[in-house]
């Protein structure tokens, strides 16, 4: 029998015991409160349960060797939450209020922040609570915002084992105008193709490539990497604008990489990986190397099939800033 100790608990399966919560009622956000994590009372006619009015964020607080705790690019994540809310016509949260809620949760969860390479994962969540099952084409006028925290450990320490990725050229991850919105419905839409690829192709992840153009994985962005060169799709509405992607692209020139942001095809990617590298980027994945691409019934080895040297180098450059062992030249960290 195996027991689940925290260090091998699946990502997100453990929460700290405190959450911050606030409600939007009568046209305004109420004062937020800290509460014990537990059920929220909600009407079964709540807008989110019928019409999917929901969005969320995910980012991390890191404990440094001196015991201090630092949030990575919180402002950027809060801005993305506000943008998701606008796209879904949910009441837009106030940036300062969300930041206060996050700080309060981190402060009260301080003893639960794992040492490096672990972190405290923060999960702000916004959903529509207006009780009206006739509101299919009406935005919610009531909402709830919650901030949860989850201690997470490093599942891919040192970059982990190389991933095998199925190239999905038919099914789309989500509606093409909502790819940049971090909303639960997009995950529900991607679940079928993801499970099919796991079952039928033995793939770890799916890389969505609708119409033969490389887009992103189910929950991570995609980067093609070579010595001195990074290629990734340019920002458009079809995929999530990852903060990890943005951070890597901003660090890349300092590390001697030329960044190319443009559309590229699966055929071009197959050519690229004969000698190049490929990786998935995201708060949870950090930068995870791809060892194999699967297309139909064909397998393509990425480089030598191991995690590439440039992938490792970029990953370490990013995690060194997050863990405070390299200087934060971009002002990305907020001490709590
Ligand atoms: C959250 C997410 C990412 C990664 O975004 P980060 O800001 O880097 O964590 C990428 N793709 C999808 C679909 C996501 O939901």
Assembly category: single chain
Radius of gyration: 20 Å
What string, H for helix and E for strand, traces the elements in order?
EEEHEEEHHEEEHEEEEHEHEEEHE
Largest beta sheet, briefly? 9 strands, antiparallel
Key terms:
single chain; 336 residues; alpha+beta; D-amino Acid Aminotransferase, Chain A, domain 1; D-amino Acid Aminotransferase, Chain A, domain 2; 2 domains; nine-stranded antiparallel sheet; nine-stranded mixed sheet; binds pyridoxal-5'-phosphate
Write up this protein.
It contains seven helices and 18 strands. Strand 1 and strand 2 (28-29) form a beta hairpin. The chain has two domains: 18-152, D-amino Acid Aminotransferase, Chain A, domain 1; 163-322, D-amino Acid Aminotransferase, subunit A, domain 2 (D-amino Acid Aminotransferase, Chain A, domain 2, Alpha-Beta Barrel), CATH 3.20.10. Helix content is 24%, strand content 28%. It has helices spanning 47-51, 74-87, 95-108, 184-201, 243-251, 266-272, 309-322; strands at residues 18-25, 28-29, 33-36, 54-56, 59-63, 69-72, 119-128, 143-152, 163-168, 205-208, 216-217, 221-226, 229-232, 258-261, 277-282, 286-295, 298-301, 333-335. The radius of gyration is 20 Å and the shape is globular. It is an alpha+beta fold. The mean pLDDT is 95. It binds pyridoxal-5'-phosphate (PLP). Pyridoxal-5'-phosphate (PLP) binds next to helix 5 and strand 15. Residues 58, 182, 216, 219-221, 240, 242-245, 281-283 line the site of pyridoxal-5'-phosphate (PLP).
């Amino acid at each position: 029998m195996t027991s689940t100790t925290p260090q091998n608990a699946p990502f997100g399966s453990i929460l700290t015991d405190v959450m911050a919560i606030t409600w939007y009622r009568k046209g305004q956000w109420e004062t937020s409160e800290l509460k014990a994590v537990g059920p929220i009372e909600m009407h079964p006619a709540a807008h989110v349960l019928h019409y999917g009015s929901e969005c969320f964020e995910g980012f991390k607080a890191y404990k440094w060797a001196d015991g201090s705790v630092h949030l990575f690019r919180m402002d950027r994540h809060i801005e993305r939450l506000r943008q998701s809310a606008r796209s879904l016509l949910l009441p837009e949260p106030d940036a300062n209020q969300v930041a206060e809620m996050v700080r309060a949760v981190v402060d009260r969860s301080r003893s639960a922040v794992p040492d490096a390479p672990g972190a405290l994962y923060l999960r702000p969540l916004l959903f529509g609570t207006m009780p009206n099952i006739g509101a299919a084409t009406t935005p919610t006028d009531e909402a709830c915002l919650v901030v949860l925290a989850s201690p997470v450990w490093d599942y891919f320490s040192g970059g982990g084992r190389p991933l095998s990725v199925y190239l999905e050229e038919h099914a789309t991850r989500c509606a093409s105008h909502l790819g940049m919105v971090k909303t639960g419905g997009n995950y529900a839409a991607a679940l079928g193709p993801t499970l099919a690829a796991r079952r039928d192709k033995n793939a770890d992840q799916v890389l969505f490539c609708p119409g033969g153009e490389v887009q992103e994985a189910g929950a991570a962005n995609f980067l093609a990497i070579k010595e001195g060169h990074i290629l990734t799709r340019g920002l458009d509405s079809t995929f999530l604008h990852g903060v990890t992607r943005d951070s890597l692209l901003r660090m890349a020139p300092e590390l001697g990489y030329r960044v190319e942001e443009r559309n590229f095809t699966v055929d071009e990617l197959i050519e690229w990986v004969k000698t190049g590298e490929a990786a998935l980027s995201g708060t949870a994945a950090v930068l995870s190397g791809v060892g194999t691409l699967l297309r139909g019934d064909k397998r393509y080895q990425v480089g030598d099939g191991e995690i590439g040297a440039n992938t490792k180098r970029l990953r370490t450059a990013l995690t060194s800033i997050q863990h405070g062992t390299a200087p934060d030249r971009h002002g990305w960290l907020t001490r709590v």
